[in-house]
Amino acid sequence: MDVLLVGCGRMGGAMARGWRGTHRVLVFDPMATDLPEGAKRVDALADVEPDGDLAVVLAVKPQVFPAIGESLRPFAARDALFVSIMAGITLQGLGDALGSGRAVRTMPNTPAAIGQGITAAVSGRDVRMSDFATVNQLLAPTGAVVWLDDERQIDAVTAVSGSGPAYFFRFTEALAKAGTQAGLPADLAMQLARATFTGAAALAGADPAKLAELRRQVTSPGGTTAAGLMQMDQDDAIDRLARAVVDAAAARSRELAG
């Protein structure tokens, strides 16, 4: 299968590197200066001549898409499979712009750029059974892939996993700041917070135990961790904060999608 990558930023580039050796990769991105090894640049979409089956992966910024959607319509006539990683562009929006219902909308997150992400996908009305395996293969270089039953779930996915890395980064910053206020040098506090964050994430991924069990393993009754967790759980503070954060992000996702 030929893969036309429209937009070769950090996320698109990471995907293209994973396709090397399995697909012929064509890249359309006038701004890209360093293409992944094995990828071939195309200067105009009209110059694309696929050898066989074609998948078009849309990895441009959402605000760029309206300007190029019309130029992509000829690929619909060639029965291409469209895969979008653009935020805020619905299946209806993709179908209207491309003239095709053979489209898959996805929501990756930034760790996908290093193969450690998770991407949620939802299929358009004309997607074929064989397309699911194709999309799984195309997204494999980014990490895990989950399929949604309902496109309306995308807003919640965006709020939890799409925006989620930023929440963890922000909490790490807050933890480091609190460490500084407790008397640590700023650089040491940040080193401790970052290493704890990445180590805990790795442990959560490697240990099949439930997160509650992992938490209990480090929480001695009446100990220091218990004292800290008591502040987080008092009046359901941590749960109320998480709910407010997810609700706000999901609402904004719905607004952006129109």
What does the model show?
With 258 residues, this protein is α/β, with parallel strands linked by helices. The chain has two domains: 2-152, Rossmann fold (3-Layer(aba) Sandwich); 164-257, ProC C-terminal domain-like (ProC C-terminal domain-like fold, Orthogonal Bundle), CATH 1.10.3730. Helices cover 50% and strands 15% of the residues. The protein has an eight-stranded mixed β-sheet, with helices on both faces. Helix 3 (91-98) links the parallel strand 5 (81-84) and strand 6 (103-107). The chain is elongated.
List keywords for this structure.
Rossmann fold; 8 strands; 2 domains; 10 helices; ProC C-terminal domain-like fold; alpha/beta
Helicity, as a percent range: 40-55%
- Which stretches are poorly predicted, pLDDT < 50 over at least 5 residues? none
* CATH superfamily (homologous) name of the largest domain: NAD(P)-binding Rossmann-like Domain
Give the strand order, joined by hyphens, for the main sheet: 3-2-1-4-5-6-7-8
CATH class of the largest domain: Alpha Beta
SSE order, one letter for each helix or strand: EHEEEHEHEEHEHHHHHH
- Quote the distance from N terminus to C terminus: 34 Å
Q: According to CATH, what is the topology of the largest domain? A: Rossmann fold
CATH architecture annotation name of the largest domain:
3-Layer(aba) Sandwich
The gyration radius over C-alpha positions equals: 21 Å
Sheet-strand content, in percent, reads 5-15%
Number of helices: 10
Number of domains: 2
Shape: elongated
In terms of structural class, how would the helical and strand content be classed?
alpha/beta
- In total, the number of strands is 8
Largest sheet: 8 strands, mixed
- Kindly state the mean pLDDT as a whole number? 94
